[in-house]
Design a protein that fits this description.
Pfam families: RelA_SpoT
Strand order of the largest sheet: 1-2-5-4-3
Distance between the termini: 72 Å
Protein name: RelA/SpoT domain protein
Order of helices and strands: HEHHEHHEEEHHHEEEHEE
CATH topology of the largest domain: Beta Polymerase, domain 2
Radius of gyration: 26 Å
Strand content: 15-25%
InterPro entries: GTP_Pyrophosphokinase (IPR052366), NT_sf (IPR043519), RelA_SpoT (IPR007685)
Shape: elongated
Length: 308
């Protein structure tokens, strides 16, 4: 086993020799992840996934992890930059934040799909969502090997988290308790951290349920064809007060609010497949619409698209 001073020298040399390669690999992965994001959410709300940036692990943290590993395994030999990278495969780290667990699962699956990886190589993956770590930590980790023009390939770890899973790390000051950090977790800290993680996981699950319910509410089955509604001339005047990719919200003269669903806009536009409602309906547009109401909500079905 190397002494700490010897390990420190090797780690410092690794950071001098490989920093440029690590930074270039991080930029390349970020670009690739952004393209994955666009592909997975084509014609959907792109904010459901957010490539949150990258970091190069601090050299002191790398040294601390290596020291811990060599103490656990006295036979381990760390003699080169390659050994440092082989043992610490998350020096390059990138985080993808998701709105809900279903988006997390979607992104995690894409990162393990050989057809999506191209020249990247999947090395390992870990699902810390079910079960979570003993601390309460929840996330999905994927380690990739990235070809490099700067010599040997670069290992990189991609962490896929929901926004609440990421918030847990901030709220519990998780970074303060990692190897090489200043503090050691107390029993109280551990109990509070696990309780907070469980509560946030419950909120994540509720958000998923709400998202599914909202999809059902904003995509009801059409009851009457548009031409038939026009013939009945049963429309009322409504004003658009909010709009987004899946639906718009309109209000009539008496203040009643209703949803303008995507299927109605798609039928009027003549387009097939997924459309974005806010490409056709804008804030403060005035529309003639038929009124449909069921147990789930009130809907305004436009009879014509506005002219822009």
């Amino acid at each position: 086993m190397k002494s700490e001073s010897q390990l420190k020298t090797i780690v410092e040399r690794a950071y001098v020799e490989r920093l440029d390669a690590w930074q270039l690999a991080a930029v390349r992965i970020k670009h690739w992840l952004t393209e994955q994001q666009k592909g997975l959410l084509k014609d959907k709300d792109i904010s459901r996934l957010d490539v949150d940036g990258h970091r190069i692990k601090d050299a002191a943290r790398t040294l601390a992890k290596l020291t811990e590993k060599t103490e656990d395994d006295p036979q381990m030999r760390i003699t080169s930059t390659e050994d440092v990278e082989d043992q610490i495969r998350d020096i390059v780290g990138i985080k993808v934040l998701c709105k809900s667990p279903r988006d997390q699962s979607m992104m995690f699956a894409a990162l393990r799909d050989p057809e999506q990886l191209g020249s990247f190589e999947l090395i390992e993956w870990k699902d810390y969502t079910d079960p979570p770590k003993a601390s309460g930590y929840r996330a999905c980790h994927v380690t990739l090997r990235i070809p490099s023009d700067q010599g040997a390939p670069v290992f990189a770890e991609i962490q896929v988290k929901t926004r609440l899973q990421d918030a847990w790390s901030e709220l519990t000051h998780e970074d303060m308790y990692k190897p090489g950090a200043a503090m050691k977790p107390s029993k109280l800290h551990g109990e509070f951290a696990r309780a907070m993680a469980n509560m946030l996981a419950t909120v994540d699950d509720m958000a998923d349920t709400l998202a599914v319910e909202l999809t059902a509410l904003t995509n009801p089955e059409p009851v009457v064809e548009i031409d038939e509604l026009r013939e009945q001339d049963s429309g009322i005047d409504v004003r658009v007060r909010a709009t987004g990719p899946k639906y718009a919200l309109a209000v009539d003269g008496s203040g009643r609010q209703g949803l303008i669903p995507a299927f109605a806009i798609r039928r009027l536009s003549g387009q097939k497949g997924t459309i974005k409602v806010n490409d056709f309906i804008h804030l403060d547009d005035r529309l003639r619409a038929s009124v449909e109401e069921d147990s789930k909500g009130l809907y305004y079905i436009p009879l014509e698209l506005p002219e822009h």
